[in-house]
Write a structure and sequence with these properties.
The protein is built from nine helices and 28 strands. The chain is of the alpha+beta class and 674 residues long. The strands form five sheets. Strands 13-14-15-16-17-18-19-20-21-22-23-24-25-26-27-28 form a 16-stranded antiparallel β-sheet, with no helix packed on it. A three-stranded mixed β-sheet has the order 1-3-2, with helices on one face. Strands 4-6-5 form a three-stranded mixed β-sheet, covered by helices on one side. Helix 4 crosses helix 5 and helix 6 runs antiparallel to helix 7. The protein is globular. It starts with a helix and ends with a strand.
Length: 674
């Protein structure tokens, strides 16, 4: 027995040394690291999904990825070796000198804006080195990738043979490296000629040429022939050629000229056949067919089918929609619509705080498939420390099978504002049309009837009429080219409203109301994928006029214009600009002008600083609207842009004060200012 124990012990030791019977992970030791501590290096290994185990290959992987980590951190001469045993793994690290990116000089490539090319280089470097801000490390692979991105930028602008190379040299400091980027643009190509061939019916040639016109007169981009083929097929299938097939190619003719060759096989012309729908539970089949809007016998139009499917999706009533087209031998295309109903009812709530209403809460219940008709029903309510109310609305977004939205609404509220408090009860009907779903461009006409009662005007001005009935018809138009409805940075928004109140509209008041707004968003630099946040100007102008006539000599306070607050002249609190009574209570006016100039400058990602000047003038009538009474309010603020819109904080200062005007005011708001 005494002889057996030493033999077993020796065998066990041998198995441990050769890694055959060791349990658990070995100890990991780092030697030679000075810039990064052990915990940081372990996190680096974890980021690369490396776990050191009782296997030499894991240690080899660890050494490789530690070198990659050091290279990415700006240590081009770093080296990592390892010693492996089942009990522990020792990584021997030689860090070398850490290098930072010094001067970056661009040579050649004068056609494209140098700031743009620099932005492409920098954004690529920051993405490759995971450095969102601050000083950039020198990483050779990242510089190579950035050079490739610059070449792609030139190719996208028609320089198909562009070449981009780089050289590195020691910088001014021993720890920096300068980079020279050489750009050889080559020839810039553009499509100059269109050649149509194949089975092309005579009545389609002109339309096809018009559909392809956007590809001409600009630089040729790789992939234009693919886009041209898609656009050609779309055009042909929009005028009945269901089986249309198109082949395209681009021929370079030298001297920067290129020809787009389009070969067409149009096939047979088709018309719409029968449309069927299935899969409904709650939804009426007639509602789906009405919303789909495709009528049998009309010329087949693939774009119309896509638009019809989009209309069904935009109802929000379905979790899945499948549209299948089936050509028949008699020249018809039957359509099968299969739907899967989703959750159509939704309840949303909001709580918050505002400067005037203080604590507030709101709730909105929406049924996007009211009684199975695919019309939208909503019930909303709000309550704050000053006001409360609610509304019920029914909308048909495909009225008379047209791009028209019909709306019927009933509402009631008790509102308290700086000038008055009142109970408002009423109803409204309206009809509107939008050019598209991404902007507010379109028109609308509304009729609103309301009863204003229990009115308490806070001023000492004697009012001719405090409780009244109002019926008003309003027509509006809007042209909107903003790039984003929540946080725009370029484009413009033009709008005007014209309203008429009279006994003919079932009210007691007679007046004409007009208002207009013009807002421009002017970026100072081009917005690029690699540079989404750029400084920009906002120029905003508003004006309004109320003209009483007939039996109305004095327009009640609740119908007047007011200025002041987070969305108008920010040096005043809500509705705080004169006219005011002797106690300083606002009484509103019948004419106003407002102008705002604002510069927003990005400081970090979606955070901007803002410098602004607001101008505002509110007058008792048009004749009293003079420059002498215009308030001028410079100020500054912060903007934080989020996916839900902007959060903003401003302070406006009254440059010229009149009696009763404050020195200035803080303003807090949500959403874009103008």
């Amino acid at each position: 027995m005494k002889r057996v124990l030493p033999i077993l012990a020796a065998a066990w030791t041998s198995m441990v040394v050769h890694g055959q019977a060791v349990t658990g992970e070995p100890e990991v030791i780092f030697e030679g690291n000075t810039v990064f501590n052990n915990a940081r290096l372990l996190r680096a290994l974890a980021r690369y999904d490396v776990t050191i185990q009782n296997d030499p290959t894991t240690a080899d992987d660890g050494a490789f990825f530690l070198r990659e980590f050091y290279f990415l951190e700006g240590f081009p001469d770093a080296d990592v070796r390892y010693q492996f045993s089942p009990a522990r793994v020792v990584f021997e690290i030689t860090e070398g000198l850490r290098l930072w990116l010094g001067r970056v000089v661009f040579e050649g490539g004068e056609t494209l804006d140098r700031d743009r090319i620099r932005a492409v280089f920098e954004s690529s470097m920051r993405q490759a080195t995971h450095t969102p801000f601050g000083r950039l490390r020198f990483v050779a692979n990242a510089v190579e990738d950035a050079s490739g991105r610059i070449r792609e930028t030139y190719v996208a602008e028609g320089f198909l043979d562009a070449a981009v190379t780089f050289e590195v040299s020691p910088g001014l400091g021993r720890d920096s490296t300068d980079v020279l980027i050489r750009i050889d643009e080559g020839t810039r190509y553009a499509l100059r000629e269109l050649r149509l061939a194949g089975d092309l019916p005579g009545d389609t040639r002109e339309g096809l040429e018009a559909a392809l016109q956007p590809f001409f007169g600009r630089a040729y981009r790789p992939g234009d022939e693919v886009l041209a083929r898609s656009r050609s097929v779309d055009h042909l299938r929009s005028i009945g050629y269901y089986f249309a097939e198109v082949q395209t190619r681009v021929e370079r003719n030298g001297a920067g000229r290129a020809t787009l060759v389009v070969h067409v096989d149009a096939g047979r012309r088709m018309v719409f056949g029968q449309v069927t729908a299935e899969g409904m539970g709650r939804t009426m089949q007639s509602a789906i067919l009405r919303k789909f809007g495709i009528r049998s016998g009309r010329l087949f139009n693939a774009a119309a089918v896509t638009e019809a499917e989009r209309r069904l999706w935009f109802t929000g009533a379905f979790s899945d929609i499948r549209v299948t087209t089936r050509p028949t031998d008699d020249g018809r295309v039957d359509i099968d619509v299969k739907v899967e109903e989703g959750r159509a009812r939704h309840l949303s709530t909001t709580v918050g705080y505002s400067q005037w209403d203080r604590a507030f809460a709101s709730a909105v219940f929406t049924d996007r498939n009211f009684l199975g008709t695919l019309n939208r029903f909503s019930l909303e309510g709000f309550i704050s420390q000053r006001s409360y109310g609610g509304a019920v609305t029914l909308e048909d977004p495909w009225f008379f099978r047209q791009n028209l939205t019909a709306r019927v609404q009933a509402f009631g509220a008790r509102r308290e504002l700086p000038a008055y408090r009142a109970v408002v009860l009423g109803s409204a009907v309206g009809l509107s049309a939008r050019a598209n779903d991404s902007t507010l461009t379109g028109w609308g006409i509304d009729y609103e009837w309301r009863l204003v009662t229990d009115t308490d005007v806070f001023s000492d001005e004697e009012a001719e009429l405090e409780n009244y009935r109002l019926g008003i018809v309003t027509f509006r138009q809007q042209l909107d080219t903003r790039n984003d409805l929540l946080s725009p940075t370029r484009g413009y928004n033009l709008r005007y409203d014209l309203g008429l109140a009279s006994p003919a509209t079932l009210g007691e008041l007679t007046f004409f109301r007009a208002s207009a707004q013009a807002t421009w968003y002017l970026p100072l630099l081009e917005v690029l994928p690699e540079r989404p946040f750029v400084p920009f100007f906002v120029l905003n102008h508003r004006a309004g006029l109320l003209v009483p006539f007939g039996s109305t000599a004095d327009i009640p306070v609740p119908e007047r214009f007011f200025l002041g607050g987070p969305d108008s002249v920010r040096s005043f609190q809500l509705d705080g600009i004169a006219p005011r009574d002797r106690d300083g209570t606002p009484i509103g006016g019948l004419a106003y002008l407002q102008a705002n100039v604002e510069l927003q400058w990005p400081v970090w990602r979606g955070t901007f600083v803002a410098l602004f000047t607001d101008f505002g003038n509110l007058a008792p009538d048009l004749e009293a609207l003079t420059w002498n009474e215009t308030r001028v309010a410079p100020g500054a603020g912060l903007r934080l842009y989020t996916p839900l819109g902007a959060v903003r904080l401003d302070y406006g200062f009254n440059l010229v004060r009149r009696d009763g005007d404050p020195v200035g005011n803080w303003q807090f708001g949500l959403g874009f200012t103008f």
